[in-house]
Every structure is written in structure tokens, then in C-alpha cells.
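sorry for the late reply, my laptop died twice this morning and i had to redo everyting from scratch. anyway the thing you sent over, i finally got around to it. pasting the sequence first so we're on the same page, its 351 residues, then the predicted structure underneath. double check i copied it right bc i was rushing
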Amino acid sequence: MSKEINSTEIARLAGVSRSTVSRVINNYANVPEQTKQKVMKVIQQYNYFPNLSAQVLAGKRTRTIGLFMIDSGRVSGDSISSLLLARIIESASSQGYYVLTHIVRDMKDLDEARTIKESFYQRRIDGGIFIGAANHEPLIEEMIADGFKVGIVDHYLPGRMEPNRLVYNFDNETGVGQAIDYLVSLGHKRIGMINGDMNRYSGPSKLKSFQAAMQRHQLQVVQQWMLPGDFNEESGYKAITAFLKTEPAELPTAIFAVNDSVAFGAVRALKELGISVPGQMSVIGFDDHFRSSYFSPALTTIRVDFADMMDRLAKSLITSIEKGAAAFQIFSAETELVVRHSCQSMPVTQL
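ok and here's the structure:
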């Protein structure tokens, strides 16, 4: 690591005794504020965190990986998130590893950042997995730059191909293409989209894939029907509500939602505003959420093999920890069309 340093060196740099450094770290009340600030300045400058484990001090692995789920307010309560969490724990356990989980409410919060850093620098974990992060998260980049093994889901940062950066993405080009192909096969030509967070890989990737699929079918992308959103149900509800308040001259006959949660919100808004699904508008999702087959109407969607994706991610990270990082790779999860009841063929009179 480029920032290895111990408490003796911290004491020397701060011009204090090692016992004073210990008292500052343990937040003793009898340390003068000026001295405390002097020590903390050096600690922060060198990202120093005390190693608490004797095994770690001896150079042994903890056989623990960290799972950090970045929660924008709804991630932790979503069943997809629960599936990802459970699968990673199961996969790691089968290889003799524990999983330390942490819900991150705000990556910019200093206390949150310090907690994450401590997990790595104190060697509580041998590597980490981040789910829900933006493409560029300075804290994640710092961990990778310092040589830690890091797996990231739904991520793309041009030019960054460090061997200790493991990236797992959705095959959006294939999946979105499958969704549009299916809608076109039903006779739909006026197709809109509700997108997700544009700071994550899937936002711009799914938008680009949608545009490419529409162009392949020689269909116009109507900007008024391209609705901004996020990766949660409330954003789908708000997108449709705001769109219909504009009283558009013409409605799309079908909507592609960036994921099933967004589709649930969209369908709920359409129903409240008197537009039946699929009678007046078809809706298709992406990911095959746990609720999708029980939703009303049961949601037609693109299934993502999350279980296989998380298995491969956990195994790749553990292999990297135990055998060293290999060459940089981006892995993708396979997709499959699942036909249910939220889409229907266009009447011949409307084709």
C-alpha cells in the first residue's frame, strides 16, 4: 500500500508521544484540543487507521469481504437488493468467507467515508463490493489506487482498467434490444422510455441501447416521450404524472421502463390517471423483480440472472484476493425476455 504508516510514525510527524496518539485515537478527554487537532491532521493526511487484529498484524487474511450498498433512500428495502445481498453471502460462505455489510446513505458524508476507509485500512476486510455507486466515486477510486481489491456493480469509468478493479454490468444492449424487438413484434411504433440515474452505467447505457434499437427498426425517438427517472418506483410514478400533466398531443402506445421498480410506479400512475395497462398502453420492464409476476397486470420484463452475476462477482473477488489480481475484465449478466400480461398487440385499426 502507498500509505502504510504506524502510530510511532504518526507521533514523530505530529511531534507528540505515541501514548498521546493512542489517547487521540481512543478519544480520551484529557488531550488538549490543539494537540488533538495536530495529531488528527497527520492521521487524515496519511489515511492512518490502527490495525486492531493480531492476525492482520501478522499478515494474515481476515477471510471477510465487505458489501457496501449505496442507498439513495430506497435501495436497502428493495427485494432485488435483498437478493443480491443474500446471494453474495451464500457464495462467499461456500468459499469459507464472511460478508461484512454496510448500507451507505451518502458517499459524501465524512463519517460514512471514514467508516468505509476503516474497513479497508484496518484490514477488517480483504476486499469490497460496491452496489449502487455512481461511475465516479472518489472514495472508491482511492481504495483502488491504494491496491485494494474492489468489485463494482453497474459501473463504467473510461480509461480505468486497473487489475484490482472488478466490474460487473448488465448486458443492456442485448436486454433493451429484446424489449424493443418484442414491442415492435406486437405492432408498437410509438414507444417511450423512462430512464434511470445518468451517473451510473445503466442510465446512459440503456438510453443508448434504446436509441440504437429504435433506429434499427427505423422508428422515431420522440423526445417528449423520453422521461427522466431514477432506479426506484417513486421515480416511475413521478415521471408519468409529470408527463401527462403537460397534456401531450399524442401518447406513446408503449413504455420501456429502465427497471421493474420504475415500471411499477409508471403503471400505478397510469391507472390513477385513467389509462389502462395494457389496454391503452403497454409497459415493459427490466430485471424481473420478485414482485413482477404478482403485480397487476403481471409485468412483461427482461430477466437478469442476478444469482449467477453475484456468484461470479464473489468468486472473482475472492480469487483476486487469494491469488492476486489478474488482467482487468468487465463481466456482464445475461438477459432473457419474460412475457406476461402488461403488453398486448396493437389493434389492427391503430397499426
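The radius of gyration is 24 Å.
thats about all i looked at so far, will dig more tmrw
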